[in-house]
Amino acid sequence: MKTLVIISHPELEESGSQQFLVQAVDDLPDVTLHHLEGRYPDGKIDVKAEQALLRQYDRILFQFPFYWYSSPPLLKKWQDDVLTEHFAFGYRGDKLNGKDFGMVLVIGLPEKDYQTGGAEGFSISELTKPFQAMAKKVGMDYVKPLTIFQFPYKTEEEKMDLLIQYRQYLSMKNPDSLKSREEWLLKELDQTNLETLPEDQASFILEEVVELIEDNRMELDELRLHIDNYED
Amino acid sequence: MKTLVIISHPELEESGSQQFLVQAVDDLPDVTLHHLEGRYPDGKIDVKAEQALLRQYDRILFQFPFYWYSSPPLLKKWQDDVLTEHFAFGYRGDKLNGKDFGMVLVIGLPEKDYQTGGAEGFSISELTKPFQAMAKKVGMDYVKPLTIFQFPYKTEEEKMDLLIQYRQYLSMKNPDSLKSREEWLLKELDQTNLETLPEDQASFILEEVVELIEDNRMELDELRLHIDNYED
């Protein structure tokens, strides 16, 4: 699976969270990071080049800071310019059909604020409706967004956890499924020489393996319970 | 009530609907139209000037074509640049508190497409959540948007109706209340010399008066029914 990450951030170099994410995936061969403000500093988007790029990938992601509950202006301009009729929708506008669409949202406030009655008053599922509608319109499969709340307050362990989640989000077909996570982890382990890794990373990968085995056991236990019920 | 209409449209001169709207209100003394792309052709927004402008008005409206279920890029940039902490939210960020916020949305597809199961799949109420959240955050009162679907297909009579709705939306405190509409119409009639108007406009205003009287009668009838029920 080939993944294109369209990053929009007016000051990418200044953003700790974005720098962390960029470095987290620089070894993944099937992932391309595409920073719009870096590529188009004058704001003039090369529509043909962007459309040609989109065709090469199976999963298209938007990655941006969730300012005012939406994308930075250049990503909106990209939508308006690149997702044209006859390319993305309308007659023969099927060029994005069947691809995955997802988002990596960097959010400054805590998750609990995003609900009815919370400080922000609306959930992320509500606030991202315009992007859900876009995915529907162009025939893409909407993948649950990866939301990153209050990055600067994260502990080292939380950051490591985020790193794994992010790598999975960019390279796994179904990041929520246990089977996919298992396959992904076995592949990662196969490519990794634990002895050459810094100790904290090695132990972290081992923790992930343990967690996965535990999840597997829970699922097996649950299945066994179901079978017992049927036999009664 | 003083109203500021912040218009965002990359090609205002080319838009029939926007030209119609601009001309519909050029005689209203308490309404200011503020076209962002015209004012800032290089995209660099004068934040202090914009914040000073906002303070002078009681109702702030965003008027734009609803491309990809959101605003054009320059209006998003305006939000990101102008609605700063300590001005619009946060400590002492109360400068917009209590003002009205509304939107005039120009939409290319028919209204029936915007619902669950419809071609677009989402309602306008769902797709405008990010703006509702913005209004909440800055303490503004969210006014039901004025939605204009498929302007080019409107008949002359529908356009006249839109003209009245739009003028009311820009100058009436509660555009939905019968009492407000009554007062507004009496004021308009007071200022208008019917004999100098083109015949179609004069007859249209008379139709509005008739409609208002009918609405009044219906409301009175309904009240009478309630009273009868109580007396039984």
Question: How does this structure look, described?
Answer:
The structure is a homodimer of 232-residue chains. Chain A has helices spanning 16-24, 36-39, 47-55, 73-82, 124-127, 129-138, 156-171, 178-191, 199-231; strands at residues 3-7, 31-35, 59-65, 100-107, 141-142, 146-149. Chain A folds into two domains: 3-161, Rossmann fold, CATH 3.40.50.360; 177-232, no CATH class. The longest helix of chain A is centred in the C-terminal third of the chain and has 33 residues, at 199-231. In chain A, strands 1, 2, 3, 4, 5 and 6 form a six-stranded parallel sheet that branches. Chain A has nine helices and six strands. Chain A is 47% helix and 13% strand. At the A-B interface, helix 4 and helix 6 of A face helix 4 and helix 6 of B. Chains A, B: InterPro entries: Flavodoxin_fold, Flavoprotein-like_sf, KefG/KefF. Chains A, B: Residues 1-169 form the Flavodoxin-like fold domain. Chains A, B: This is NAD(P)H-dependent oxidoreductase.
- How large a portion of the residues of chain A is in β-strands, by DSSP E? 5-15%
Number of helices of chain A: 9
Helical amount of chain A: 40-55%
Q: Low-confidence segments of chain A, ≥5 residues, pLDDT <50?
A: none
CATH homologous superfamily title of the largest domain in chain A: Flavodoxin domain
Query: What's the rounded overall pLDDT mean of chain A?
Result: 91
* Reported CATH architecture of the largest domain in chain A: 3-Layer(aba) Sandwich
The arrangement of helices and strands of chain A along the chain is EHEHHEHEHHEEHHH
Principal-axis shape of chain A: globular
Number of spatially distinct domains of chain A = 2
Structural class of chain A: alpha/beta
Oligomer: homodimer
| Most extensive contact | A-B, 27 and 26 residues
Main sheet characteristics of chain A:
6 strands, parallel
| CATH topology name of the largest domain in chain A | Rossmann fold
Give the CATH class of the largest domain in chain A. Alpha Beta
How many β-strands of chain A, per DSSP? Answer: 6
